[in-house]
Design a protein that fits this description.
By secondary structure, the chain is mainly beta. It has one domain: Folate-binding fold, CATH 3.30.2270.10. It contains 1 helix and 6 strands, in the order βββαβββ. A 4-stranded antiparallel β-sheet has the order 3-4-5-6, with no helix packed on it. Strand 1 and strand 2 form a beta hairpin. The longest helix has 9 residues. The radius of gyration is 15 Å and the shape is globular.
Length: 100
């Protein structure tokens, strides 16, 4: 089973978490002023990077809080987790051994 470290609760099994999409996507300040193309880009355009990717997660069966994670999509390995509003840590310095 994959283990995820909630920055508030510690290490927990993946079944306690829900994926929330790409992290660091800023909502438009005035959505009503956006064109249809700009709004569609905000809603649907996401990077689908191969490798290290910043993601948003929610600890639904724990504290209920959202947090961000750096995850290597090629190995399905979490490299780091951090609170929303914090800067992402350097992925290369936080790599861990592959999880069982």
């Amino acid at each position: 089973m994959l283990l995820i470290e909630c920055p508030y609760c510690g290490v927990r099994p993946e079944l306690e978490f829900v994926y929330g999409g790409q992290a660091h996507v800023a909502r438009p300040h005035d959505p009503a002023a956006c064109s249809d193309e700009q709004w569609a880009e905000f809603l649907y355009w996401r990077e689908n990077a191969k490798g290290v990717h910043a993601e948003r997660w929610r600890h639904t069966h724990g504290c209920g809080r959202f947090f961000n994670a750096l995850r290597d999509t090629t190995r399905d390995q979490f490299l780091a987790t951090y609170r929303v509003g914090e800067r992402p840590p350097a992925a290369s310095s936080r790599e861990r051994e592959p999880q069982p």
